[in-house]
């Protein structure tokens, strides 16, 4: 008789799942690195190698990335609830394989757009799944900390890769050397996801069996057995906390999408060399990534709502500082503040979704929230491109500042505190 090794029963908590959690943090850093390798380089590639003019046309690759990633987020949530988390994670990395090669070999801008469609699928499937897997592992008490660590790894890697790709572009040219980073990231991620990652859906089932309604009755209108249409409506429109989080996430990534396509051009028109422009662009996700190590855990202690409102307000002030004509030092201060405001918002919004959504449909709720959030990439690209073409680069940044202020007002008025009341 052949004896099979016993699979340990799932246990919730960060300490109990430290090894798998650390592995998933590493995988998400590689997901972020895939974005960072191209952020500094592609806007310059558009103008210098392909001779593109018109900001709207240049931003098409950001829009293609954002729309594709948003759609992939939805399928990531639905498929991970139905078939498990690990197969979706692995599929996401398979879509990344051609991306660096397409960017290296691209004979025209259409190849760049196609590569960003594949990158959007990779990001939607892989990043959404690592979010859900970490929420599964840690349980309800440490969601903010878990999301802070997850997002810090992802966007810290965006910053490091942006800085490194900008340096390599300045030293060795725009192609092919900066995009060799992506080949390394993909190979390592496939190894980690395919060989070492473990399925976490059992942890979600464990939490679901132990799930109890809040004593204050605030979630009594939500049930365990919602269908996909009901989950979409609750997350998008009806449930005050979930829908407010979706709006705030959309505006938050609108700022990121706009800065992704616009910032390198804004800094280049001021005469900054590529290396300095890369440093400025890396500063935003660097502060954003490192800040989340603090803000995620902080939301577990002081609550979610006011941290989100304050973060959106800080982004408003930062965008106003960037929009005003400035020097390297002034832009550095503005981008650092923008990163700090985003750090206050990003992991906290994901924690809100984890607080409110039932474990039975949490994967789908996270996916739908990330649909709206990542449509912000496309919205930022379209808004930034059209506004910059009509009124100039600075006007596009002012428009984003106004939208950030509006989102802060909506969250303050509509969202309730979602952090479960502490016992004892």
UniProtKB/TrEMBL annotation:
<keyword id="KW-1003">Cell membrane</keyword>
<keyword id="KW-0812">Transmembrane</keyword>
<feature type="transmembrane region" description="Helical">
    <location>
        <begin position="55"/>
        <end position="76"/>
    </location>
</feature>
<dbReference type="Pfam" id="PF07690">
    <property type="entry name" value="MFS_1"/>
</dbReference>
<feature type="transmembrane region" description="Helical">
    <location>
        <begin position="152"/>
        <end position="170"/>
    </location>
</feature>
<dbReference type="InterPro" id="IPR050171">
    <property type="entry name" value="MFS_Transporters"/>
</dbReference>
<dbReference type="InterPro" id="IPR005829">
    <property type="entry name" value="Sugar_transporter_CS"/>
</dbReference>
<feature type="transmembrane region" description="Helical">
    <location>
        <begin position="12"/>
        <end position="35"/>
    </location>
</feature>
<keyword id="KW-0813">Transport</keyword>
<feature type="transmembrane region" description="Helical">
    <location>
        <begin position="375"/>
        <end position="391"/>
    </location>
</feature>
<feature type="transmembrane region" description="Helical">
    <location>
        <begin position="307"/>
        <end position="325"/>
    </location>
</feature>
<keyword id="KW-0472">Membrane</keyword>
<feature type="transmembrane region" description="Helical">
    <location>
        <begin position="88"/>
        <end position="105"/>
    </location>
</feature>
<feature type="transmembrane region" description="Helical">
    <location>
        <begin position="176"/>
        <end position="197"/>
    </location>
</feature>
<keyword id="KW-1133">Transmembrane helix</keyword>
<dbReference type="InterPro" id="IPR020846">
    <property type="entry name" value="MFS_dom"/>
</dbReference>
<feature type="domain" description="Major facilitator superfamily (MFS) profile">
    <location>
        <begin position="21"/>
        <end position="419"/>
    </location>
</feature>
<feature type="transmembrane region" description="Helical">
    <location>
        <begin position="331"/>
        <end position="354"/>
    </location>
</feature>
<protein>
    <submittedName>
        <fullName>MFS transporter</fullName>
    </submittedName>
</protein>
<feature type="transmembrane region" description="Helical">
    <location>
        <begin position="111"/>
        <end position="132"/>
    </location>
</feature>
<dbReference type="InterPro" id="IPR036259">
    <property type="entry name" value="MFS_trans_sf"/>
</dbReference>
<dbReference type="InterPro" id="IPR011701">
    <property type="entry name" value="MFS"/>
</dbReference>
